[in-house]
Amino acid sequence: MKFTLKTYLPIIVALAIVIGMYLGQSLNFPEQQEFKSSSQQKFSKFINYIDESYVDEVNTDSIVDITLKSVLDQLDPHSSYISQQDYGLVHDEMRGGFVGIGISFYHIGDTLAVIRTIENGPSDKAGLLPGDRIVEADGVDLSASIVSDSITKLLKGEKETSVKLRVKRFNENELLTFNVIRNEVPLKSVDASYMMNDTTAYVKINRFSETTYSEFKGRMNRLPQQNIKSVVLDLRNNTGGYLQEATQIADEFLKEDQLIVFTKNKDGDLNKRFATSGGAFENAKVYVLINEKTASASEVIAGAIQDNDRGTIIGRRSFGKGLVQREMQLGDGSAVRLTVARYYTPTGRSIQRSYENGNRDYFSSYLKRYTNGELQSEDSIHVDESKQFTTPGGKTVYGGGGIIPDIFVPINATKVSKDLKFMFEGGAMSRFIFTQMDKDRAYYNNLEEKQFITGDLITYEMISNFENYLGDFSMTYDFSSSIDEAKVYLKATMAQQIFDDNLAYRIINKNDEMLEKVLEIKSQ
């Protein structure tokens, strides 16, 4: 009988506990190079027997990969395995950058279409423009059947090396040649930062990578520091990342020696992190925006602000992830992110949701928020009275399931509103707007920001075209009752491609319910 992975899946699952012990030997800890138990030795021999003696050729790496995942599924919802194939992409995202030519692009027809270049990045410096079609890279014809992964590898490379690009430009008859010098290309974790009014700064962070704190400082330093009396920290949809980066940002708002967070490992060892002196916004009012997708390191910041009575948390209950992972190399280019501790907010509460009924129940219980009314009504939020805590200022807070905001803002229940936001964030609008701007690249590429902001660039005809565009994908929409809202999101998408995310969020946020709540509170 020919070997398949399904054939041995029951055996693999049965061995999960054994391999759990074997993991310790595999995590590259010098003190664990020798087998510590007969179980570890048993599994190693089992793999060797299959590799050396089984009648058919067997990919034992696949067995180990599936078994590792099975083991991690038995532990907790957030311990995970990163395969060798996925590790590079995951590492780049958390490192906050990679070496490349600095463009975002689409595959359109038989060419590579430049959506935009990264400001001051390699392609920007070389002179590439939005709408350019890259038809060749180092002699490789990109119009041939070449997959996106191969294109990405072709454009990436060693720092300070060059790639020769042949480009078709919208107003040129001949192909243009560009020698682009590869360099570090940042993956932004701070989407936007600007002044909402004369005294209120807004900053949106999408994750916590290695560069987040330096991004945060750089962006905020470009704002008029002397005028900032209030800061709105937008952590909606931020699923977390490095704890160190989050605590550094929390430190900017807390006074010296205020507790930010503490962690506890399996041995009961505590690691407490306190604020230092000289935070840039220690005296500013703070408003933290959270929602049901705010998790992990983001919840550390929200918890620190709330438990120290330092500011106001606005929005909806956060995800509820209070586990700390550490990435551990497995020696072959893959890695495991293993939960090594729990974190606690300054009052001592864990906001980790229960996973005692298994991972499937854990994630399905989260999804129930969309049907049980919690996102529409504060009264529908279930709290565990046994996990009640009190802040120094006398405020009651709860552990055991996310950060509950001080001021609740329901989710926008209008289907069109939710769908428009999804289309903006998911990319449906992006490709459509790209094709619309392709009709007159010279005009759009020469727009000044002030002209863009004041101009009525989204026409009724364009909205009609967007409805037809969605129809091509079997999505039927009539935006006649929400034309103004559709215009906002389409113009924000255009801003992303012509300018940057900062301008896009300035446009979208003008009608944001949570920001309206902030301004309402400030005016009282």
Brief write-up:
With 524 residues, the protein is of the alpha+beta class. It has helices spanning 5-14, 16-26, 38-53, 60-73, 84-95, 122-126, 148-155, 212-221, 243-251, 297-307, 359-367, 415-426, 428-437, 441-445, 449-454, 460-471, 483-498, 501-508, 513-523; strands at residues 80-82, 97-100, 103-108, 111-117, 133-137, 140-141, 162-168, 176-181, 183-186, 190-195, 200-205, 230-234, 259-265, 270-274, 285-290, 312-315, 323-329, 335-344, 388-390, 396-398, 407-408.
The proportion of residues forming helix, as a percent range, comes to 25-40%
Shape: globular
Q: Could you describe the largest sheet, including whether it forms a barrel?
A: 6 strands, antiparallel
Portion in strands? 15-25%
Round the Cα radius of gyration to an integer and report it: 26 Å
Using the 3D structure, state the CATH architecture of the largest domain: Alpha-Beta Complex
Structure annotation, total helices:
19
Low-pLDDT sequence parts: 1-33
Mean pLDDT: 88
What's the CATH H-level homologous superfamily of the largest domain? 2-enoyl-CoA Hydratase, Chain A, domain 1
* Derived structural class: alpha+beta
Name the CATH class of the largest domain: Alpha Beta
What is the β-strand count?
21
Whole-number count of domains: 4
State the separation between the terminal residues, measured CA to CA.
Answer: 76 Å
Outline the structure in words:
By secondary structure, this protein is of the alpha+beta class. The protein folds into four domains: 5-74, no CATH class; 97-186, Pdz3 Domain (Roll), CATH 2.30.42; 190-329 and 338-408, 2-enoyl-CoA Hydratase, Chain A, domain 1; 415-523, no CATH class. The protein is 37% helix and 21% strand. It has 19 helices and 21 strands. The strands form five sheets. Strands 3, 4, 5, 6, 7 and 8 form a six-stranded antiparallel sheet that branches. Strands 10-11-12-15-16-21 form a six-stranded mixed sheet, with helices on both faces. Strands 1, 13, 14, 17 and 18 form a five-stranded antiparallel sheet that branches. Helix 2 crosses helix 3. The protein is globular, with a radius of gyration of 26 Å.
